[in-house]
Structures are given as structure tokens and as C-alpha cells.
Amino acid sequence: MKIVVLCGGTSTERAVSLVTGSDVCRALRSKGHKAILIDVFLGHKDIDVEKIFDEEFSVDEELKYIEENSKDFDNIKKKRRNFFGENVLELCKACDIVFMGLHGACGEDGKVQAALELMGVKYTGANALSSAMAMDKAVTKKIFAADNVPMAKGFKVSKDTAEKMPESYGLKYPVVVKPNCGGSSIGVYFAENSQEYEDALERAFAYEDVLVVEEKITGREFSIGVVEYEAYPIIEIIPNEGFYDYENKYKPGATKDVCPAEVDEESAVRMQKAAVDAAKSLGLDTYCRVDVLMDKEGNCYCLEANTLPGMTPTSLLPQEAKVIGLDYAELCEHLINISLNK
């Protein structure tokens, strides 16, 4: 197939997206597909849309092009009004399917998906509406509450909210403060008291104008891939120190991943059901990854659903797929096939 792998973009997870996209593109090319990599925001002015899929393509050369043209990236973002880079939409219209290797805002929030839908372009992952709902943590909490999906207590707070203190919403310290639409644990802070809470708000507001505050659940952290509403094997995430923040997510050796997770069968069934219920609640009928916490009493809490989970060979979803016999390249193909069927 002719496949465009979209990566990069303008979010705080741009660097992670470039890694996901390049790995996916290499995997698809290894399976014989005519896959090309392109930064959704930068585009590529020298690509011949009519010929590119049939020509030799180097992922490494494209990454060099992206790096060279990203040196003045902040200034480009300020000046540009159009999100899509040169030749991006033309390439998407010319391919059989777009593999969404994007993460974060303008990638996971349904905006790119909506544009592709309007052009009749097929793409991997959740549709525009489900993507938008899952990206917004406050909206996700409302939907989970309506469908009785287990979750931590919490509330939304914005810069202009009159009452911001946790006590006003029935929460006790410690609490977690995080950007409403952020990802990769960027801008997440913990507070043990009112002073730390005020500091956490100030620091988190530097990332977004809307935040979510939740009770801090102390326990074990898990992640569960859900593909076509079927749960993959559970993976437990054990950071060497601290919590599963950006550094622990992407620094080699900072975290131990155990898959299948060492939990009793009853707990495994309960967590997998919660993950599937979360996916169904948001309408994520292709694939996603649901993050779950389990406290000391065995209660599980769905944190959020990632509509475009990390897709490097060592990312969580590929690790889970490996347990059921799907290698990395096969998983990439599988996600394409199920998306085409939708």
C-alpha cells in the first residue's frame, strides 16, 4: 500500500512523535509497503507527489531534512497561519491510508482527523469526535462518570475559576495537578498541602489555561492496550524512582516494564474490563491504550485513554502485542487493517 506516516507537529510531544513515526515507517517498508515519512507541520517542498511512492525513500534522509528545517521552529510557528506543511495534504490524498504517528495537540485531539475525514482520506486510529473527547481529560471524566467507568475523583480548574482549592470540591491532599489536554506526563505536579498546590497550579498553568486536579492514588501503575474492544495483556510500569514522568517514559533503563503483569487473575480480569469499558465509553473502536492505577486495596482507576499510543518497538502497546505473538511490524500492519475496516 501507499502509506503516509504523519509525525512531528507542534505539540510538546513533537520529539516523541518523530521517533514513533520513523520507527513505524521503517517497519512498514520492511513489510514491502510504499511508506513515506513526513512532518505534518513542516511538510517537504521538494517532494514530487506523483512519483514519491514509487521512488527510493530514506527515512534517515527525511529526518535530516526535518532537523535542518526545524532550527527556526518557534519563529515558524508564530508566523504561520496554516497548520499543514507544504505537500502534506496532497500526499495524504494520494495515499491508500495515513498512519497517524502524531502525539499531543493537533494530532490526538481530532483536528487532523477531521480534516482528513472532510477530504475522504483514510487514517489509523479513532475518529475525530472520539479523539477530541479522549484528549480532553475533563470531558473524559464526565463521560466515564456517566458510564460508571472507575476513575479518580477530580475537577477542572481554569485561570479564571473563582474557587480553585481542592477542599471546595471534596478532595483531600495529596492531589495531582495536570494540564487538561497534555500528554507524556508533561506539566504534571503533585501537592501534599495548600502551598505546594498553589505552586503546582502556577507551574501547570504555564502549559495550559485549563487543568485537571485529582486525588492522588497511591499504588501500582498499569497500561492496557485495547484493540477492537479486546484487551491486550496487562503491562505493569515500575519506575526506578519517582513516578512515570517524561524522563522515566523515554530515558532508557529508567523504568522496568513487566508484561504480562504479575497480578492475580481476578484483578487482571477487573482491570481489563475497566480498560475495555473506558474505550467503549469514548467510542475508541479501533485501538487505544488505557492507563490504570490499582491501590493497595485492589481498587482500579482509569486515568485516561491514549488514542495514539507510542509506537516505538519498545513502547507499551508493542510490548503487549509481542506477548500474543505479534511482532512490531505485524502490529503496525494490523492497526492499519483494522482501521481500513472501519
Query: What is the beta-strand fraction?
Result: 15-25%
CATH architecture of the largest domain: 3-Layer(aba) Sandwich
User: Segments where pLDDT lies below 50 for 5+ residues?
Assistant: none
Determine the N-to-C terminus distance. 17 Å
> In the CATH scheme, what's the topology name of the largest domain?
Rossmann fold
The average pLDDT value, as a whole number, equals 92
* Rg calculated over all Cα atoms: 20 Å
Shape by Cα distribution: globular
Q: Fraction of residues in helices?
A: 25-40%
Which sheet architecture does the biggest sheet show? 6 strands, antiparallel
CATH class of the largest domain: Alpha Beta
Structural class computed from helices and strand pairing: alpha+beta
Overall strand count: 13
Give the SSE string. EHEHHHEHHHEEEHEEEEHEHEEHH
Q: What is the count of structural domains?
A: 3
**Number of helical regions:** 12
In short:
The protein folds into three domains: 123 residues, Rossmann fold (3-Layer(aba) Sandwich), CATH 3.40.50; 63 residues, Dna Ligase, domain 1 (2-Layer Sandwich), CATH 3.30.1490; 89 residues, D-amino Acid Aminotransferase, Chain A, domain 1. It has 342 residues and is an alpha+beta fold.
